[in-house]
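[Q] Does anyone have a clean structure-token version of this?
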Amino acid sequence: MRMAWRWGMSILFVVVNALMMLFLGLVFLPWAALSPQGALVACKAYTWWVRFTCWAFVGITWEVRGEVPTEECLVVAKHQSFLDIIIIFQVVPQPRFIMKRELLWTPIIGLYAWRLGCVPVARGKRGTAIKKMMADVKSGRVAPGQLVIYPQGTRVKPGDYRPYKVGSFVLYDQLDQSCAPAATNAGLFWRKGTMLRHPGRAVVAFLPRIAPGAAQAEFMGRLENEIETASNALMREAGYAGELPEVGPAQG
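[A] Here you go.
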């Protein structure tokens, strides 16, 4: 009975949030079309709505730890769930995401991502994707703010492992900005590939900054070790009892 209730509330949660996304997307469309600020305000409003419905419908609360980056910097974040995107978007002032190109064709999300200055890249074309990222950033198409990249290139379920890719270092090196690594356990509660949501406290933890100027091996090794170690600790803290991959040197 409890599981049936959880499924029912999870499906309701998904439907309600899809409708709210459509509603806000249409209401803010004229402002967003005229100004990126309109897109930013609409998306911030949506994250607050999701925060409320997470608590009210499915029992998910969330917490942000560490120093939230407010300066112009590179945020390199663990990606387990759409939820960690929402949490980061809500708390950083001017987020710009490196995102897969296919999302540009997603109704509402694609339009607003474009207006926010997110950087689309083609999957499976590492060299081309990196060049495109740098061209967009250097051309000024990406406005100043917090550029967010997922170093594994996709969502990774708790307990799974994907190597860290070199694109994070290329941006860090070329932008000559500090890097704010971020860990999470959000995938335990809002899982990839299912509408079922699980109650609990989702955490995004911003870790100590990596100052500009580190060499590739040092940067990639530190990045992977710190993000994976912190994410594993957050998952254990939340009660995850499954196997976790050993934290080792970057394979990017």
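[Q] Thanks! Anything notable?
[A] The mean pLDDT is 90.
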